[in-house]
Design goal:
The protein has a domain of about 240 residues: Aspartate Aminotransferase, domain 2 (3-Layer(aba) Sandwich), CATH 3.40.640.10. About 35% of the residues lie in helices and about 20% in strands. The chain has a 7-stranded mixed β-sheet, sandwiched between helices. The model has no long low-confidence stretch (mean pLDDT about 95). It binds pyridoxal-5'-phosphate (PLP).
Length: about 375
């Protein structure tokens, strides 16, 4: 094997994707209820998306940011329009981690401070700054520990206030809904308290919507369920439906200067074409309201199952908490029932992040297969 072996992945060779389905080299069809870590927003190989990318690559695929790329302006305008952040600005980059790195830099350029507050069970990416604000000792190296970071429990916001009072905090960052941590929604009270405290102590509030954004929770951003307006929002995953693209949405209080941020690939023609196609399809096919509606159907259907202790999350970002460790179940679902689902750091949770194009019939079919899997595992002693 020539690849540096860092992933524990399935021995399944996927060669094709269509809508909510993916197909292996034997033409075996699988349901994709994971969307490749929440990346597939408009469904696999959506025909309009494919056509637009084809047309774009025939014209030009890349030039650097040394020239104006009008497609960037179009993408930014569609994004601010659909999200309601009309007076904010957009910086385009290539991934979620890079979006978070840039968000932290924007905050630090603004107030010239360096300490960051993140939350327990957070995940924000694997580059130096992003991993330093990720609460997982297993993947952090000594090199990453140079950053000044404090992790706080969502349940201990008094401690947050104690820290903010010291006036040396550059920014507070939270996921819209924690994904890898096990679908943990901070909720109305917590988000409003963080927002209030950041304003009170004049600290930057960043919300990482990399997994929870792009319509997945039934509103464009998960935090919009709670009526707050952070200073900076980071995005990636669903933004390009698989084409690598990320972005930072930035409040007008931050002033850009020449050379402040930059990237070679960020905002290239193909990335913009994918980003524009995704937003146009989300709008045309009403995928945000579909996510809300399908999420409700999903939650109600899952409630019928006795082995489920709790259903977490919103819309099509769901965490199903079983009364047992789910490793075997996930394996069974993939191997026997031909359904991809996700895991998390919580061993009892299955993460569901299907494409936003999902229909009721797919959910009903999922429930039948899940019940079959549970029955089989229960009786297979
Ligand atoms: C909430 C969140 N932030 C950041 C990232 C990092 O994104 P990327 O892998 O594109 O760097 C992820 C990836 O899983 C994520 O879930």
């Amino acid at each position: 094997m020539n690849l540096f072996d860092v992933y524990s992945n399935e021995e399944i060779e996927i060669i094709k994707g269509r809508g909510i389905y993916i197909y292996d080299k034997y033409n075996q069809k699988y349901f994709d209820f994971y969307g490749g870590h929440a990346v597939i927003s408009i469904g696999h190989s959506h025909p309009i998306y494919v056509n637009n990318l084809k047309k774009q690559i025939k014209k030009i695929s890349f030039y650097s940011n040394s020239i104006k790329i009008p497609e960037q302006e179009k993408l930014a305008s569609l994004l601010l329009d659909i999200s309601g952040y009309y007076d904010y600005k957009v910086f385009l980059c290539n991934s979620g981690a890079e979006a978070n790195e840039n968000a932290l830099k924007i905050a630090s350029f603004h107030n010239n401070k360096k300490k960051i507050i993140a939350f327990k069970k957070s995940f924000h990416g694997r580059t130096s700054g992003a991993i330093s604000i990720t609460d997982n000792n297993k993947i952090i190296t000594k090199f990453n520990l140079q950053h000044k970071v404090k992790f706080i429990d969502y349940k201990n916001l008094d401690f947050l206030e104690e820290e903010l009072k010291k006036q040396d905090i550059c920014a507070v960052i939270s996921e819209g809904i924690q994904g890898i941590g096990g679908i943990i929604d901070p909720g109305m009270f917590v988000f409003n308290k963080i927002d209030f405290l950041c304003r009170k102590y004049n600290t930057i509030f960043i919300v990482d919507e990399i997994q929870s954004g792009y319509g997945r929770t039934g509103l464009f951003f998960a935090h919009q369920n709670y009526g707050i307006k952070p200073d900076i929002i980071t995005i990636a995953k669903g933004m390009g439906n698989g084409f690598p693209i990320g972005g930072v949405i930035i409040s007008p209080k931050f002033k850009p200067f020449n050379g402040m941020l930059g990237t070679t690939f960020g905002g290239n023609y193909l990335a913009c074409s994918s980003g524009i196609s995704v937003l146009e399809i989300i709008k045309k096919e009403c995928l945000i309201s579909n996510a809300k509606k399908m999420g409700e159907i999903f939650i109600n259907s899952l409630k019928e199952i006795d082995e489920i202790k709790e259903i977490r999350g919103k819309g099509l970002m769901l965490g199903v908490n079983f009364n047992f460790k789910v490793k075997k179940l996930i394996n069974f679902l993939i191997k026997k029932e031909k359904i991809f689902v996700g895991s998390s750091l919580d061993q009892n949770i299955i993460r569901l992040l299907p494409p936003l194009t999902i229909k009721e019939k797919h959910i009903k079919n999922f429930i039948i297969r899940l019940k079959k899997a549970l029955y089989f595992l229960k009786n297979d002693k």
